[in-house]
Amino acid sequence: MLEKLFKLKQNNTSLKQEVVAGLTTFLTMAYIIFVNPMMLADAGMDHGAVFVATCLAAAIGCLIMGLLANYPIALAPGMGLNAFFTYTVVGEMGYSWETALGAVFMSGVCFLVLSLVKIREWIVNSIPMSLRFGIAAGIGLFLALIGLKSAGIVVASPATLVTMGDITSFPAVMASLGFFLIIAMVHRGWKAAVILSIMIVTVLGLLFGDVQYNGLVALPPSIMPTFMKMDISSVLEISMISVIFAFLFVDLFDTSGTLVAVAQRGGFLDDKGRLPRVKRALTADSVATITGAMLGTSTTTSYIESTAGVSAGGRTGLTAVVVGILFLAALFISPLAGMVPAYATSGALFYVAILMMSGLVNVDWDDLTEAAPVVVTCLLMPLTFSIANAIGFGFISYLVIKLLTGRFKDLNAGVIFIAILFLVKFIYG
Fold it and tell me: Which of 148, 196, 204 is nearest to 176 (CA)?
């Protein structure tokens, strides 16, 4: 049955190799089990229900990807998108988390339609590469600020907006230790570096009496506080268009970039550099987002950590299926997830920020018309605490700079349309 479903011999792999690859991928991305519920709880959502929704959305996404597209690509609620959900849509814009879930649901539907009618390629190809790197790096800075804030390393200041907190406090010391541990373990090639760091810091919190022991294994909490709670009617307001667009936009690039990176690492591209069964992979991603919103979590997307599993020998969808099964097994560690303090995940956020900022090396810094919009996007994302607004300012600045410098050939219909859309949004609110 496995041979018929995944074509193991044809892809020069085996059951053992795929299981090892699946375990490797899971260990590199399992931190989302602890980080996502904590982040969405800040939006007022039930921690236990989001924990279950996170595990189920990841499991369903992985199973669909593995069985439908037969690629070793794992999915889970995406970092950055969960921060946008909590701190921008709910925190800054003042929408309820139910409305935010509705926006995630609608973005998933739009993604599915775009994937099926092949408009996705036109949208992605119309966006300048420099802005893509700027958006990814900006999200990294945004996550870094959230991590520093959670650890108390950066605090509010009436005089300077932000300032350094008490870096000798227990949360700040533990967050710093967690970050240093991740870097050291990753440097040594440890696949489970992030989750090991979270566990070590949590255990230290227990030993020093800062964390209360609640057990390790239990039946999953109820998912009912978030299940099917998305508010679709409120999403139909004009002001929500930019929110839906931001969810869709980031997910598009997240997924596209991940698919290309994993395909290159695994040698899945054809002679023309194209990915076979790409429509199936995109369909799996969009259906996972729709399902995740129904369960009660932010956008579910493909994870770049899948390259770890591919490096370990994963070549078929069986790797993704193994990851999905492990996420289902993780449903029974809810007490452990509830014990993890915020500062234990701060190091993980900072580490993810480093990964997301690495793309800046590809920006042409000698061309100011390309570099300036990147800097605008990167800086405004953490400083405005909004992914959507920063994307908008990035596109507007790109359009204006290219027009003023006479670089009309660098513009296309997609850039002009998106820039005007955000400009109208900023003017009319």
Answer: 148
Backbone torsions φ then ψ of 365, nearest 5 degrees: -75, -15
The residue count for the chain: 429
- Buried/exposed 199-226: b ≥16 CB within 10 Å, e otherwise: bbbbebbeeeeebeeeeeeeebbebebb
Residue 302 sits at φ, ψ, to 5 deg, of: -70, 145
CA–CA dist 368, 366 (Å, integer): 6
Which residues, other chains included, contact 203 with Cβ-Cβ below 8 Å and sequence gap of 6+?
none
DSSP 360: G
236/240 Cα distance (integer angstroms)? 7
Q: Are 308 and 25 in contact, with CB atoms under 8 Å apart?
A: yes
| H-helix or E-strand spanning residue 77 | strand 75-77
Q: How many CB atoms lie within 10 A of CB 94?
A: 8
Residues of the chain with pLDDT > 70, as a percent, come to 98
Residue 226 neighbours by CB under 8 Å, 6+ apart: 45, 46, 49, 50, 53, 101, 295, 296, 297
pLDDT tens for each residue of 92-142: 889 999 999 999 999 999 989 988 887 766 776 677 888 888 888 888 898
For the chain, the average pLDDT equals 89
Q: What is the pTM of this model?
A: 0.83
Amino acid at 233: S
